[in-house]
Each structure stands twice: as C-alpha cells, then as structure tokens.
Amino acid sequence: MPRKTFFNLPEEKRKKITDTLIKYFATRPYSKVDIEDVSRECKVAKGSMYLYFENKKDMYFYVIEESAKKILEVAGRYDFEKISLFEYVEKSFEDTWKFIKEHPYEYMLLEKTAFYDDSPYKEEIQEFLKTKTKSFLYELIVKNQKVGLIREDISPELILIFIESSSWGLKRFFIEMAKLQGLNVYDLPKDYVKKTENDYLKLLKEGIEKK
Description:
Keywords: DNA-binding. InterPro entries: Homeodomain-like_sf (IPR009057), HTH-type_Tx_Regulator (IPR050624), HTH_TetR (IPR001647), Tet_transcr_reg_TetR-rel_C_sf (IPR036271). This is TetR/AcrR family transcriptional regulator. The chain has 211 residues and is mostly helical. The protein has one domain: Tetracycline Repressor, domain 2, CATH 1.10.357. It is built from ten helices and no strands. It has helices at residues 4-7, 11-27, 35-42, 46-52, 56-75, 85-102, 104-115, 122-146, 156-180, 190-206. Helix 2 crosses helix 5. The radius of gyration is 19 Å and the shape is globular. The mean pLDDT is 89.
C-alpha cells in the first residue's frame, strides 16, 4: 500500500499518479513499465515516486486494488439475497459495458491480471483477486444451489471457474471484434451485442449437449 506521504498529497495529484500507473500497467508488460516514464507524465521527480510507494510491486498491487474497488462498487448495488445467478450474469454484462466506457484502463488491468499476468507475482495476485472479487459470486452460486435454481451435482468452485473464464472470454471477444472494425467496444451494434449475450446465457442455462 502507498506510504503516508502519498495520502498527504492533494487529491488531484494522487488521482493523476493513480490513473497514470493504471494506464501503464494495463497497456505494457510489467517488466516494460518504467517508473521514470510514469513520473515524467505525472510531473513529479522519479525519486518522489519512491517516497510515495515502497517499490514497483507496491505500485502494481495498489492500482490493482483500486481497479477492483471500482468494479466491486458496481456489484455492490445488487441485492444478492434476491437476485438469481442468471440475473446477476445478465446485469453484470450490462454494467460491464458502462464500466469499460468509463474506466477502460481499469478493465484492461483487471482482465490482464486475472488471466495473463506477466509479473513475478502471479500467484500472489491470483490469491488477492480471489479474496477481493470472487467471494461474493461463490456465495451466490451456493445460495442458488441450495434453493434449487442451479445444479447441485457440480461443485460451486467449478461453476465459479466456468462462469468467470467464459464471461471474461466473451468480453475479450467483443473487444477483439471492435478492434477489427476500428471501433471502441462500446460502439459495437447493440442488437449484435445483445443477441450474443443472450446466446451466452442460453448456453449457461442449458449447456451444449444435444438433448
């Protein structure tokens, strides 16, 4: 976590440093993130960055946590006592589009750390994300199993892995489709996006085995 000196900075300066670190870690391999480049863009001395943070790892974990907080704020609006797993997945797709549009680098960073982290701290990050972003979904799966909304013969851990991996994969697919067309992901045709999401939900509910 940042040192006390970082939190003593004016809010605007803290935000500039945080946003710049998120952008660099989201768009470059960990080894290629040069703190001197970050400090130059933020108009602070490179040495000052190490007054604010212990080291590069500290900076990395800080911005991952800040990005996770933002996306969890969205999930925090759901009533998990009433919502079904399928309703949650559908709503999360809708809210993800808003999140990507408003926080593109935060989304890119979370996707990167969740699936193809290239830092020396992959195992630590996976454990961090598990405790920060996965517990609420796991609990929702268990609740849905207990009330008979989803199958109980499959472990909640496996269902969690499947939903997280496939939903991130679908979002990544949309991003690649947009790039091929020279678009931002949120500019893809809404009817195409909605149909694809509905097809995904159908697969999630019914499976792919031909009955």
